Amino acid sequence: MSQIALPLDWPAGETQQDFIVGDSNAAAVRHLDHWGAWPVMATILTGPRKSGRSLLGRLFARKSGGRLIDEADRRDEEELFHAWNAAQEQRLPLLMIADQPPPAWRVRLPDLRSRLGATPVVALGDPDDQLVGALVEKLLIQRNLMPPPDLIPWLVPRVERSHVGLIRVVDALDQAALSRRTRLSLKLARATLAELRLIDGQEDSA
Questions:
Q1: Cα 83 off chain centre by
Q2: Is 67 helix (H, G, I), strand (E, B) or coil?
Q3: Is the pLDDT of residue 113 over 70?
């Protein structure tokens, strides 16, 4: 069996530590880790945008030697059909990533529809409290913003429970610190996020 060549435009240096595991994504990670036990050599991974699904897919493809098809629900049906068949013949796993599971894809090819119907679907959910804190900290550090010890515990119960929402929060904090040429602080975060209505309205003096 030959390993499929990885696309040259994939980011270099990604490791498993770059994908933070929490309750909302642990089941999907476990499923991908045990691809040798899949009932068919294919799986569909769904989840919200910015949830790390493409990163998880790239890590999986590198580790397993299989093939990744991102945005599978927007790809040519013949391409998906042949990729699914090739995965079974070569015994190399195929991971398809999409916004929704196959019933929402409106597949026209009956043979592809039946194959997708036999394919396991795993999902990444919205982040839980623990994952929210870890993701915000990671995103801030990636922007060279060092969060003070009191910031993350203050943010976690107040921010929107979505990956896109967390990125908006970090973007706002990054811009505020940059425009004021100051370090990130709880005081700055409270004022910035309240003004932009990126936190729950219940404010306190903490």
A1: 23
A2: strand
A3: yes
